[in-house]
Design a protein that fits this description.
Number of domains of chain B: 2
Structural class of chain B: alpha/beta
Radius of gyration of chain A: 16 Å
Distance between the termini of chain B: 56 Å
Helix content of chain B: 25-40%
Oligomer: heterodimer
Number of helices of chain A: 4
Shape of chain A: globular
CATH superfamily of the largest domain in chain B: NADH:ubiquinone oxidoreductase-like, 20kDa subunit
Order of helices and strands of chain B: EHHEEEHEHHEEHHHHHH
CATH topology of the largest domain in chain B: Rossmann fold
Radius of gyration of chain B: 21 Å
Helix content of chain A: 25-40%
Number of strands of chain A: 4
Largest interface: A-B, 38 and 53 residues
Largest sheet of chain B: 5 strands, parallel
Strand order of the largest sheet of chain A: 2-1-3-4
Shape of chain B: globular
Structural class of chain A: alpha/beta
Number of strands of chain B: 7
Chain lengths: 145, 293
C-alpha cells in the first residue's frame, strides 16, 4: 500500500510550489495530501501528532526559504523550531523521527516539490508501518510467563 | 452528613489526601468518611456513597476493579489531583515499555509476578469510568480545593472550573521583549518582577489552567504546568511545545535542543497519558510481537 503523507503548505510559497508542479505537469506519487495553511507559522505539532495517530505515515512541513522569504516575516523560523522539538518528542514516543520532514519550497520550485514528495514516499515505504495507536484501556494488562 | 470515600489508586503519592487534611476542620467535620485507603482502615467499599474522591493514576488491574466498584456504589465521582485527572507524574512511565521498566528497577530476577498486574500504560481515571468533576493540581491549591469542596458538600453544586491560564493570573510584568537565549534555572540571575518566559526561563504557565493565582511564577519559580490544560485544550504538551518553539524560534534548532534535551519530560510532565500519542508506540509493537508467537 502506498504511504499517506500529510503535506502542510504555506499559501505564498509552498502551496504555490505545489501548484507549479501541477501546472508544469511534473509526475509525483499520489501519496501527498496537501493542506494549505496561511503560513508555516501555523504548522503546529498537533497536526503532525493527530495525523500520525489517525493513519498517516508521514508529515511534511514546508514553508518559504530562510532567512527572509516568509510573507509574515518569521513563520518559517517557528516551523523550524517546532519540527526540531517535534522530532525529538517523536523519538521519545517510539515513533521514527524521519516520519516528519521539513523542507523549504518556494513558489517557483515545482520540480523540488515533486522531488521531495517522491523521495519522502520512498523513505516511508522502506520503514515498517506505524502500528495503529489504540486507547490506553484497550492495551490491556501486561502478562507474565 | 454526606458519605465520602477517599480512594487512592496505585499511581499516587498520597499528597492529595494530605492536602485534604491540610484543609483542617472546615471540610472534615462536615463529612462522614466511610472508606479510605490512607487515613483509616476499611476492608470493603460500602454502598450508597455520596461522594468519591479518587486520586492517583490507574496503573494496575486491581485499580480498574476498584474504580468500577466505586463508580457503581457512589453517586458522584471526583478526580482529585493531576494524576487522577490527566495522568500526572506516574504517567511519564508511559515513555517506557512495562517489562523494560521493571527490569531497570528490580533487576532481571525479581519481577512482581504474583503481586501486581500492571496495565501496559498508566492512565487518568476518565479512561475507565465516567468522572463528574476534576480538581487538578499537584496538589490542588488550598483555596480552590476548599471552595470547591465546600460548594459540593454544602450546596450540592459543582462550581464552574477556571478556564483561563496561569499567565492571566500572573502578576509579573510583561514587556513583549523576549530573550534571545534559553536558560536553565540558576544559569542567570532572574528579575523577580518580570515575566520569566521573557527572560528565557521555560515557564509552562501559557498552557496551564488558572486557579493557583500563579503561585510559583510570582515567587520566582517557573510554572511546571501541574494543573494541566485549560478546558479548551486537549493536549497540553503539544500546545506548550508549539508555543515555546515559536517564542524561541530565532535560536538555532541545535542549540534549542541542547537546552531542551527532553521535550516529553518538559512539556508532558503532568499530562502524557492524556496527550495525542499517550504512550511509547514501542508498547504496541511488543504486544503484536507477543501475539504472533
Amino acid at each position: 500500500m502506498k504511504p499517506k503523507i500529510l503535506v502542510l503548505t504555506c499559501t505564498y510559497c509552498s502551496y504555490a510550489g505545489a501548484d507549479m508542479a501541477g501546472v508544469s505537469k511534473i509526475q509525483y506519487p499520489p501519496s501527498a495530501y496537501i493542506v494549505r495553511l496561511i503560513c508555516s507559522g501555523r504548522e503546529e505539532a498537533l497536526f503532525a501528532l493527530t495525523a500520525l495517530k489517525s493513519g498517516f505515515d508521514g508529515v511534511l512541513f514546508s514553508g518559504c526559504h530562510l532567512p527572509a522569504d516568509c510573507h509574515f516575516i518569521s513563520g518559517n523560523y517557528k516551523a523550524r523550531a517546532r519540527v526540531a522539538l517535534l522530532k525529538k518528542l517523536l523519538s521519545q514516543l517510539g515513533v521514527e523521527k524521519n516520519r516528519v520532514k521539513l523542507e523549504w519550497i518556494s513558489a517557483s520550485e515545482g520540480e523540488k516539490f515533486a522531488r521531495v514528495i517522491s523521495e519522502f514516499t520512498e523513505e516511508l515505504e522502506e520503514m515498517k508501518p506505524l502500528p495503529k495507536i489504540v486507547r490506553i484501556r484497550d492495551l490491556g494488562v501486561e502478562e507474565y510467563d | 452528613m454526606i458519605k465520602v470515600a477517599l480512594v487512592g489508586l496505585s499511581g499516587y503519592c498520597s499528597g492529595c489526601e494530605v492536602a485534604l487534611i491540610d484543609l483542617g476542620q472546615e471540610i472534615l467535620t462536615k463529612v462522614n468518611i466511610v472508606y479510605s485507603t490512607l487515613v483509616a482502615d476499611y476492608e470493603e467499599i460500602p454502598s450508597n456513597i455520596d461522594l468519591s474522591l479518587v486520586s492517583g493514576a490507574v496503573r494496575t488491574e486491581h485499580d480498574i476493579e476498584i474504580l468500577k466498584e466505586i463508580r457503581e456504589k457512589s453517586s458522584k465521582v471526583i478526580a482529585l489531583g493531576t494524576c487522577a485527572s490527566f495522568g500526572g507524574i506516574p504517567g511519564l512511565a508511559n515513555l517506557y515499555v512495562v517489562r523494560d521498566m521493571l527490569k531497570e528497577v528490580y533487576g532481571e530476577k525479581v519481577l512482581p509476578v504474583e503481586v501486581l498486574k500492571l496495565t501496559r500504560a498508566a492512565a487518568p481515571v476518565s479512561e475507565y469510568i465516567e468522572v463528574d468533576y476534576m480538581i487538578p493540581g499537584c496538589p490542588p491549591p488550598y483555596k480552590l480545593l476548599r471552595d470547591t469542596l465546600l460548594s459540593i458538600v454544602e450546596k450540592n453544586t459543582f462550581p464552574k472550573p477556571p478556564f483561563k491560564t496561569v499567565c492571566d493570573e500572573c502578576p509579573l510584568e510583561k514587556k513583549d521583549e523576549f530573550s534571545s537565549k534559553v536558560y536553565r534555572l540558576g544559569e542567570i540571575e532572574i528579575d523577580p518582577s518580570r515575566c520569566l518566559l521573557e527572560q528565557g526561563i521555560l515557564c509552562m504557565g501559557i498552557a496551564t489552567v488558572a486557579g493557583c493565582k500563579a503561585h510559583c511564577p510570582s515567587r520566582g519559580a517557573p510554572c511546571r504546568g501541574c494543573r494541566g490544560p485549560p478546558p479548551s485544550i486537549s493536549d497540553q504538551g503539544e500546545r506548550l511545545l508549539s508555543a515555546i518553539a515559536s517564542v524561541f524560534s530565532r535560536i538555532d534548532p541545535q542549540q534549542l535542543l541542547e537546552k531542551i534535551p527532553d521535550p516529553a519530560g518538559y512539556f508532558y510532565r503532568f499530562t502524557l497519558p492524556s496527550g495525542t500519542i499517550p504512550y511509547n508506540v514501542e508498547v504496541l509493537r511488543r504486544v503484536k510481537h507477543e501475539d504472533r508467537d
